[in-house]
């Protein structure tokens, strides 16, 4: 494997009413210091000569940028021959709702065929790769097992290995790179579209580091040949302010940093802000009326959440738009207290975690967490300290393995 060095520039796109990230000047672990960071994609001098003269397939979406512009559009303007683009969940231009099946199409701007890797075609086929000399992977990840970009990464690596194609990875910082926390997926039955790896809920690796992990830990039948353009000026303790929303429902820096904690509520009776322009910064449910004063009403929002939990019904709960996320950074952990608090406050505890089991027989909450232990511990009333203690054997083992594949301090 050959490694290069590189970095990006970012502009946070926010809505004025979504709140701000209050820890932007925070010192210590997680300090936001994006000015010193250059993404792999932005270091074109490191890889542009390698692309010239090759037919390129790109795995990209709206988070794939070079100097603030689409990396696909930028590379085309630099004379790179991109013959296909493969889009993950939410599509190439990032305008599909969470979980929506994304159809393949032709990009209106460039005329390039767009192959969807979310829905019926998760893995590139031999036919789709036959006219490609080199695959390029450029997606912004947020460091969670239930954020599906790492699933896409594995499927692309499998396809490249099977079809003798090389994969060039343009690495990007992990905005939650200092957090390795949560239970490790315990059994195969918890594998699903929202998690296929036996890792903690937050893994603390960049996409390139995760690719090394997949190769090294035998996730692929045949290792994938990869080249990496590393991020310049980055380490895992640094905070990273994203220049572009990585997905429609992570539309603020606050949401990105709270996502590891608040996405746990999917599969429960609690709405986590989907159906509003404040996703992953607020929590609530109609049944909490009288217990919390903060309220909001989830609606159907095309391109974000068409069918949010408790649609068209007023929810009551917790407003976290101004929560100081540096607390999570200093402790290097997911916030578990909100889940415990809302379970205890919820009047109908038998339905808090939902009854739906689907075709797998496993609850949506357990699929997201990767085990049924957390649900059982919360129902049993175990204190947070005891729950966290139960995670430690798995976390320590994973951290030891993870260390072998890190590219950054």
TrEMBL record:
One of its GO terms (molecular function) is peptidoglycan beta-N-acetylmuramidase activity. Residues 257-408 form the Peptidoglycan beta-N-acetylmuramidase NamZ C-terminal domain. It comes from the Bacteria. Residues 56-253 form the Peptidoglycan beta-N-acetylmuramidase NamZ N-terminal domain. InterPro entries: NamZ, NamZ_C, NamZ_N. PANTHER family: HYPOTHETICAL 460 KDA PROTEIN IN FEUA-SIGW INTERGENIC REGION [PRECURSOR], PEPTIDOGLYCAN BETA-N-ACETYLMURAMIDASE NAMZ. This is Uncharacterized conserved protein YbbC, DUF1343 family. It comes from Pedobacter rhizosphaerae. The lineage of its organism: Bacteria, Pseudomonadati, Bacteroidota, Sphingobacteriia, Sphingobacteriales.
């Amino acid at each position: 494997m050959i490694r290069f060095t590189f970095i990006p520039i970012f502009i946070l796109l926010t809505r004025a009413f979504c709140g701000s990230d209050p820890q932007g000047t925070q010192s210590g672990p997680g300090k936001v210091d994006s000015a010193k960071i250059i993404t792999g994609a932005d270091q074109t001098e490191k890889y542009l000569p390698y692309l010239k003269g090759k037919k390129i397939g790109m795995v990209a979406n709206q988070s794939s940028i070079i100097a603030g512009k689409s990396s696909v559009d930028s590379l085309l303007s630099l004379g790179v021959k991109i013959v296909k683009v493969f889009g993950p969940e939410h599509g190439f231009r990032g305008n599909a709702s969470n979980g929506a099946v994304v159809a393949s199409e032709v990009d209106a701007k460039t005329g390039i065929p767009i192959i969807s890797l979310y829905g019926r075609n998760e893995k590139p086929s031999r036919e789709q790769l036959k006219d490609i000399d080199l695959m390029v992977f450029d997606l912004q990840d947020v460091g969670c097992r239930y954020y599906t970009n790492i699933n896409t990464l594995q499927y692309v690596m499998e396809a490249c290995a099977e079809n003798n194609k090389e994969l060039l990875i343009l690495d990007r910082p992990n905005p939650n790179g200092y957090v390795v926390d949560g239970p490790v997926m315990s059994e195969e039955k918890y594998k699903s579209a929202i998690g296929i790896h036996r890792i903690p809920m937050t893994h603390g690796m960049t996409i390139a580091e995760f690719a090394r992990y997949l190769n090294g830990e035998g996730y692929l039948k045949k290792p994938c040949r990869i080249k990496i353009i590393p991020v310049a000026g980055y380490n895992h303790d640094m905070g990273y302010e994203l220049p572009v929303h990585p997905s429609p429902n992570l539309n603020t820096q606050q949401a990105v940093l709270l996502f590891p904690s608040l996405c746990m509520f999917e599969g429960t009776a609690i709405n986590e802000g989907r159906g509003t322009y404040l996703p992953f910064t607020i929590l609530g449910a109609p049944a909490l009326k009288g217990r919390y004063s903060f309220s909001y009403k989830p609606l159907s929002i095309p391109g974000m959440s068409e069918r949010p939990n408790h649609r068209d019904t007023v929810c009551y709960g917790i407003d976290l738009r101004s929560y100081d996320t540096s607390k999570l950074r200093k402790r290097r952990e997911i916030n578990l207290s909100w889940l415990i608090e809302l379970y205890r406050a919820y009047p109908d505890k038998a339905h808090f975690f939902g009854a739906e089991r689907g075709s797998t027989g496993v609850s949506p909450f357990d699929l997201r967490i990767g085990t049924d232990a957390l649900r059982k511990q919360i129902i049993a009333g175990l204190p947070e300290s005891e729950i966290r203690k139960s995670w430690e054997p798995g976390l320590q083992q994973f951290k030891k393995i993870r260390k072998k594949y890190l590219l950054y301090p």
